[in-house]
Amino acid sequence: MTTRPPKNIRTEPLTLKDRLAALNNLPAFFKLVWQTSPTFTITNSLLRIIRSAMPVALLYVGKLIIDNVIVLSHQHHADTGHLWQLVGLEFGLAILTDGLSRAITLVDALLGDLFSNHTSVKIMAHAATLDLDQFEDSVFYDKLERARQQTIGRTLLLSQVMTQVQDLITMGFLAAGLMAFNPWLIILLLIAIIPAFLGESYFNDQSYALTRGQTPERRELDYVRYLGASDETAKEVKIFDLSGFIIDRFKQLSGKFYLDNKRLSIKRSLWGTFFAMMGSIGYYAAYVVIIIKAVEGSVTIGMLAFLAGSFRQLRSLLEGILSRFTAVSQGAIYLRDFFEFFEIRPKIKAAVNPLPFPEAIQQGFVFENVGFRYANSDRWANRHLSFTLHPGEKLALVGENGAGKTTLVKLLARLYDPTEGRILLDGHDLRDYDLTDLRMNVGIIFQDYLRYQMTFAQNIAVGNINEKENRPLIEAAAKQSLADMLAAKLPGAYDQQLGKRFAEGVELSGGEWQKVALARAYMRNAQLLILDEPTSALDARAEYAVFERFAELTKGKSAVLISHRFSTVRMADRILVLEKGELIEIGSHAELLVKDGRYAELFNLQAMGYR
Ligand SMILES: Nc1ncnc2c1ncn2[C@@H]1O[C@H](COP(=O)(O)OP(=O)(O)OP(=O)(O)O)[C@@H](O)[C@H]1O
Q1: What pairing do the DSSP bridges indicate for beta strands 365-373 and 380-389?
Q2: Which residue did the predictor score with more confidence, 566 or 582?
Q3: What is the DSSP letter of 464?
Q4: C-alpha span between 596 and 604 (Å, rounded)
Q5: ipTM of this model?
Q6: Which terminus of the chain, N or C, has fewer Cβ atoms within 10 Å?
Q7: How many C-beta atoms surround the C-beta of residue 195 within 10 A?
């Protein structure tokens, strides 16, 4: 397990300039919000604009009421009609304010949910366009992880930005009243607030740097949590008695996070208290000024209440706006991660003017000095590969573990492109063909095929998802891979839920799963069929039956088989022997035995084991 942060993750704090620059991401963010739901976006904005005028209106009506009460209290026959009208108005405003707040919360929540769904779909759709080796890169994974987190975190950003604008408008209304009375009060207010803002901004920077620096470790923490409590891992964890090891690692990682976060939280809390005190001093200084004016008689008592109320609200609004600024800019910085993820482009590109895939392959696939190196490795997984896979030919790949067999077939399906050399199909580079077309015409079943926690039929249909409703095709595919006998035994037959994860799921044995996976290969009319150790878990009788059919079912089609069982391998037209990524022998079973080279050695070794 590695905990080293990838090189390009920035862990140093950010400056105010960085934060302001990050706000540039907001327009794109709002475009995304708008795309999510124009109606909710407009409704939300309108509600907030109306809501922002409420505080000053309430304070002003309050002022009128107090002044009215004072005047009336000095009269003998007071006419209270106007007073009650004012009280009624304030009551109405209070109810409206509350209603608006609730409506805003509701629209925020609905828009947030839609936004989260919309962005999750966008992330999945974009991830689907990316290359396999991008998924194998840890820096990429961190980006994906942070982008995923954005889908939840950004709904908060949405309401924060909206609230920010709303509060700014409210502040404008309140400040106008205060300015009319005494502009100096505004200055006093700013002096009281700015240190708190700078402090808040400093600690947010620190916390951002900390969280970002912890991304790889957080990923490991999630992985350890998954290892410790998941249906897929439970068996091995029990057998190897790993829970102690896993829990220790979890404690070690989570303990480190706790300590790092605690240190920062304590510092932040102490400084926060100090800055809040400064704010209070500023507020009371202003309060004293207003009281003196009231005692002197230069403002009414109603005005005193209005100004003090305005000042108090302005202070908390300003505090909120400034601290939200750091949160908003923080969010905007995380947004950069989100948009960066969408900027990642696949390297394996579809050809601009693609050639259509041949109706029937004429010359076959030609490997011309093909070499491939995984991006995260400095060793060649395949090197100097030159051979032809003829149309209709059945080719078997043999070689020891890590010899490069799986890599070779991944190159055939363009999951990767060769690092050197080229692969030709009917005389043209594989890269010149339409990528979707190519993948449609190459059927691969990998050794680590997925066991979908779906129904039996769906598990086969994934081989050609366009035909997911085509039950006769699914049943025919099952018949070809011998999975049909299995369906007959299941209580729900083809609609039987497989796997243990969901209710009423039935778990299959390794060999049974393999038959199901094998059926996927027969779901499409591929011209090249690749089976990467397709029968390793089948019993001897099943394997024999599968291959007896295989030759017949793939008549006229090319096929590549990877197998460690020579009983399977010998059925191929030609056998390609790989060693350390290179081709060392090629020929039929009989030819290679006569040659008495590596193949003969491996074959005899296995045959000896059976004697
Ligand atoms: N995704 C990957 N990233 C980096 N290196 C890889 C990756 N996949 C395979 N390799 C390396 O490439 C080499 C060839 O692997 P490959 O899977 O092609 O071997 P194989 O012959 O299919 O082995 P096996 O018989 O065990 O399935 C190995 O050394 C392996 O470590």
Answers
A1: antiparallel
A2: 582
A3: G
A4: 10
A5: 0.96
A6: C
A7: 15
Ligand 1 centroid vs 581 CA: distance in angstroms?
9
Matching residue, tokens 């998924």: 135
The minimum-distance atom of ligand 1 relative to the CA of 397 is 21
User: What angle is formed at CA 31 by the lines to CA 27 and CA 34, rounded to 5 degrees?
Assistant: 135
- Cα(first)–Cα(last) distance of the chain, in Å? 43
* Backbone phi, psi, residue 434, to 5°: -65, 130
Q: How far is the CA of 405 from the centre of ligand 1 (A)?
A: 8
Q: With H, G, I as helix, E, B as strand and everything else as coil, classify residue 372.
A: strand
Distance 407 CA to ligand 1 centre (A): 6
SS3 514: helix
Q: Which of 4-8, 481-485, 544-548 has the lowest mean pLDDT?
A: 4-8
CA of 404 to the centre of ligand 1 (A): 6
| Radius of gyration over every alpha carbon of the chain, rounded to an integer in angstroms | 35
Ligand 1 centroid distance, CA of 382 (Å): 9
Q: DSSP letters of 172-218? A: HHHHHHHHHH-THHHHHHHHHHHHHHHHHHHHHHHHHHHHHHTHHHH
Query: Of all atoms in ligand 1, which is nearest to the CA of residue 376?
Result: 4
Specify the ligand 1 atom closest to the Cα of 132: 1
Given a cut of 70, whether residue 269 has pLDDT beyond it is yes
Nearest to 516 by CA among 555, 474, 544: 474
In the reported structure, the alpha carbon of residue 374 is separated from the centroid of ligand 1 by a whole-number distance in angstroms of 9
Tell me the C-alpha to C-alpha distance, in Å, between residue 427 and each of 20, 185, 421, 432. 55, 82, 14, 11
Q: How far is the centre of ligand 1, averaged over its atoms, from the C-alpha of 523 (Å)?
A: 27
163-210 tens-digit pLDDT: 988 999 998 888 888 888 778 878 877 777 777 777 877 887 788 788
Atom 27 of ligand 1, nearest CA residue: 401
Judged against a pLDDT cut of 50, whether residue 568 lies above it is answered with: yes
Q: Which residue has the tokens 């990998």?
A: 446
Structure-block tokens of residue 495: 């609609």
Which H or E run contains 445?
A: strand 442-445
**pLDDT range class, residue 610, cuts 50, 70, 90:** low
Which residue's CA is the closest to the ligand 1 atom numbered 3?
374
Rounded distance from Cα 376 to ligand 1 centre (Å): 12
Rounded-to-integer distance, Cα 538 and Cα 57, Å: 79
- The closest-lying atom of ligand 1 relative to the alpha carbon of residue 581 is 14
Instruction: Report residue 455 as tokens.
Output: 């129904």
The CA 406 to ligand 1 mean position distance, Å, reads 7
Contacts of residue 257, defined as CB under 8 A and 6 or more positions apart, other chains included, come to 214, 217, 218, 221
Domains located in the chain, CATH noted: 16-343 (1.20.1560.10), 365-610 (3.40.50.300)
Across residues 48-77, what is the average pLDDT?
90
Residue nearest to atom 31 of ligand 1 (CA): 402
Residue 466: DSSP 8-state: G
Give the burial class of 605: count Cβ atoms within 10 A of its Cβ; 0-12 exposed, 13-18 middle, 19 or more buried: exposed
Tell me the C-alpha distance between 407 and 143, whole Å. Answer: 26
> Residue 393: what residue type?
E
Name which residue sits closest to atom 24 of ligand 1, judged by CA. Answer: 401
What average pLDDT does the segment 91-97 reach?
Answer: 95
Q: What is the mean pLDDT of residues 338-344?
A: 84
Q: Which of 405, 444, 565, 569 to mutate to test the pocket of ligand 1 (most atoms within 8 A of CB)?
A: 405
Pocket of ligand 1 (CB under 6 A): 136, 374, 376-377, 381, 399, 401-407
